[in-house]
Amino acid sequence: MKTQQIYYSIRVAFAALRHRRAANRFQYWDREQIQRYQLCRLQILYDYVSVRVPYYQELIRKLHIPRPEALADIRRFPILNRDELKQQFDRILSHEDKSRLTREVRTSGSTGQPLRIILNVRVESIFYALLWRAWNWSGYRLGDRTAILRGKIFENEQLTQYHPVLRALYVSALHYSDEHLVKIYEKLKNFQPKFIRGYPSTLTLLADWMQRYHQKPLDSVRAISTDSETLLDYQRRKIQQAFGVKVYDVYSHWEHIGLAAECKHGRKHIAEELGLLEILDQNLAPAKPGETGRLVGTTLHNFSMPLIRYDFGDLACFAEGPCPCGRQLRQVESIDGRIEDRLWDPDGRAIIRLQAALKQSPGIAACQMIQKKIDEIEVRVVKGKGFCERDILNLRHSLQRLAGPKMHLRISFVGEIPPGPNGKVRFVISKMKGSISEKNA
Ligand SMILES: [Zn+2]
Asked: Residue 350: phi, psi to the nearest 5?
């Protein structure tokens, strides 16, 4: 088993090196070339699933779905949600696809419901080539020393682990206390990373600790890249202030369909060769640029488990206008975490722009909002550098304005906000699932 995993990883790594050149060219293609490529891949996908994947064979027959002649023809397929995917798992897999090497990953997801995803060498190698391209946008070059503060947890309370091939120092995600942050900072100082990658929550805690103890930014660091959690405005500000470098945010999924990353102009470009992404309004029509809707994606490469119009459970909106970087890859303006993880006002409306509530509270190091009742929000606050009473007054005032006067706010102070089972810290936890979210989603 172990040998097979190593063989799989080597195949992915070599294929990623191959895909890299194509990825570098693709990013400067014009809209027509990009769309022609996507349509071509879509047609190949259609031809494949219509004969080899039972779930789609039946759908195509029942709904008389023709071979796509334009990208908009994808809309002939129905939306595939997580529950449907779980139920139809075996029928969505391509059993004939034995020649390809595959790997199963389990995503814990923010809802805590695990989901199995089957990936293959092709989609993983393209995904990594594109992720690599995204890191390049922040100046990263292969072989640069990188510190990684993500969800890794090591045995024996070990704080860090060095990967000599990747020249990467992994820092354990479970150690957040001041006592550990001192050690982490010292380790980073000795390691002298050129780049830091990590969860926004972990990096914010480190940044806050650096500010509280007047620690200087690390001279070696050129840029910081965040991923896996929604990067909140106040987190970006704090990390940039403490480290004195720019933060580049990356959005991606284990499903390997959607990947979007910020260029140096702060615009988030979609890796359009990986998947075809749509944003849909409440009537399932394409949302206009600037209009927030459900993010839905179709794989262009994973034929081992081809997902068509898969609903990620995230909200997003497309941005318009050319980017000074010259890339014509579509841009997303904001991606708003999972729909399940939203707070609702007493009238059942989703509370949007929640992170704006923290804008006037610079002394707050971390914050988590939990809703168990429709008219009550529990707010957990970790005090940060320069915390004062005004931070709480401002937070209460802004939150009350967003959630309406009927909402009760219960604010409490905590020493830290522990990460969930997947190692990520959630900004919003909604226990209102099933009652409100499904009705409005
Ligand atoms: Zn750009």
From this structure: -65, 140
